[in-house]
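Weekly modeling sync, notes
Attendees: S.R. (lead), two postdocs, one rotation student

Agenda item 3: backlog of single-chain predictions. S.R. asked that every request posted to the team notebook include the full sequence so nobody has to chase files. The rotation student volunteered to paste the first one in as an example of the format we agreed on. Action items at the bottom.

Example entry:
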Amino acid sequence: MTQALDEIKIGGLGASRKRVEDNRFIRGKGNYTDDITLPGMLHMEILRSPLAHARIKSIDASRAWEIPGVRLVLTGEMMATRNLAWMPTLSYDTQAVLATDKVRFQGQEVACVIADDPYIAKDACEAIDVEYEPLPVIVNPRQAVAEGAPVIRDDKEGQAGNVIYDWEVGDAEGTEQAFAEADVVSRLQLHYPRSHPSPIECCGSIADFDRSTSKLTVYMTTQAPHIIRAAVALVAELPEHMIRIISPDIGGGFGNKVPVYPGYVCSILASILLERPVKWIEDKSGNLISTHFARDVYLDGEMALRRDGKILAVRMRTQADHGAFFSDAQPSKFKIGLMHSAFAAYDIPVAHMTTRGTYTNKAPGGVAYRCSFRVTEAMFFQERMMQAAAQDLGMDQAAFRRMNFVRDDDFPHRTPFGFLTDSGQYGKCLDVGLRAIGYDDFRKQQEEARSRGRLLGLGISTMTEPLGAGNSREYDILGIKMFDSAELKVHMTGKAIVRTGARGQGQGHETTWAQIVSHELGIPAEDIVVEEGDTDTAPFGMGTYASRSTPVAGAAVSMVSRKIRAKARKLAAHLLEVSEEDIEWELGRFYVRSAPDHGVTIQECAMAAYSNMPDGMEPGLQNTASYDPPNLTWPFAVYIVTVEVDAETGVWDVLNTVAVDDCGVRINPMIVEGQIMGGLAEAYAMANMQFITFDAEGNCVGSNYMDYMLPTAWETPGFELHSEVVTPCPHHPIGAKGIGECAAVGGPAAFVNAVLDALSETGVRNIDMPLLPDRVWEAITQRHDVSGAPPVRTD
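Predicted structure, as returned to the notebook:
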């Protein structure tokens, strides 16, 4: 008879354990950066440019200096004397900390004031006089490469135009041949607009330089504390071991809090100069117009098809608008992230992608907003092209996808762009979704409704996302390999503490990391504490973004737990007075193979590690593990949406949304469901209402929450989730694949495809997101595609 512990009861894998973080969050007891007050702390505010492109003729800060309570005014000229006017980006470009020669986007940092309180600092910023000479403005890639276009980055030696890079991947010759042999060629042009992560907590920092110890401590809203520490060491020329980055509770990140922002650098310099703590907390408008955006990519896509529906080849030409600086946080090897993960779920013989990145007079973009480095754009383009191709062939949307899916027995599968996918049951996921939505019945209802003038639509979107970037052979950021580490210490009483180099901002790390340890060691999850976010105590890690948590940091937690178990096995053999080869393990205890009742618990082994270890064994029960993933993980999902469109107004309502997510082994099913619902809410928002763009003068349209609308519970539709398909990852220690971004990645296309399906008889092939009522109404009444690319008219 087994004496193993019940894993669900102790909070191990598969337990829907309540999030331990929520004990403080729902009581208003979270400890965020702005909650921290240090003795003698000063406050910093930033003066931003009202113009998108202008030469700075002069900056007069004399009136600001005269205001009582002002301690310091920093300008680009002052920063330059300390070699801090510019800083490196995570994509090997440079970015202005404070503008010196000219401003390159509306909202760019021009000067900052440090004062006794934030109100004095704000007033002093308004007292700074800046004289600008306006310059021509560029707001899209087409303008950037037009003849006679002004050079935005004329600060860079040898930069003759606005092109940052030209990059390609795939088989150009093979793709060309496949298109020559195709029966049908489907084409689609569209724009994935800029999106802003818009976390509820804006960016901020508190820099505290202690002259007596020469140590710099920075409390900061960062998703990647160790990377920030390395960047600060490089920019500020301080020794890394004398820098401590503390990332307290974070009020959402979504990729927005990965980069190094000028406000961080200015607060650090101010603290060094004034020898007092300096706090900078960004306001909402500053966050919306200046911090890093996502998306803003244009597609010219083509698909070569056989008449029977088989995809022969795909050709993708993309243009990425990076704004004024190339500052994407992404693996160095890939200029446009993992955009070439497109069509990984489909068995396509050959493909080719070209991409161009350009500078424009907009805030720098390219963050992985709830996606794994441009994968959201890749999957959106993929599924919009799939719908257009099926329509061109006159095929059923579901049948077309099923026909071209990678088969279950074809894994590992090499994609046309060179990725190696690990496992999946794509057809089964689709079947579950179709049954749940009532596919055949809905198609009949759709025909009946159309005869009565009602417009119903159904949209399908699939996605397989490469997560857990990535193995050290191919993936790095600034040359730093993308591994993660975990440290586990089991105290003599059997209680434990685990630390990782990740940093949660809503994913539930404090809950799920404990569940992984519980799974591996049998220690109840409630007896395990999780700590993250302090570079002085946490082992090195690349941070939390691009769904790296479970695939990489979670794997490190599993591996360090197994190291602990290996030592505990030796302790058990010593206690039981048998050889280690005679010891067996079941959850929570070791026992003698020939006498199963003769055993010791993991807690007894922990006590022995401090009080009764065998000769020659190092005391204690603690270890560290670093995990370099052998491959990416590849979760799969199907999202199906039904809508009704009002032909008179263009307003569309969601009737039903079904999500079928295969994310491998689910550590905490409740948290997984929460992640999916949150991702679908963001997907709906991107498709329906979130609108941030630019006019011809580079003014940011959508710089406040009156214009950039976030969905509330009133607007957000309900979601029906299905979890019956589980395909473990074959190379992850616990078979998990990751889930945090999947719905936000695959969801938008489902909503858009549903609306366009409702409009199928109008001949309209594309409406750019967001599908605002006026755009849908224009498509219906004018029977043409509707672009949302900037510049937009504001009259």
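Discussion: group reviewed the output briefly. The chain has 19 helices and 34 strands.
Action items: rotation student to repeat for the remaining queue; S.R. to check formatting next week.
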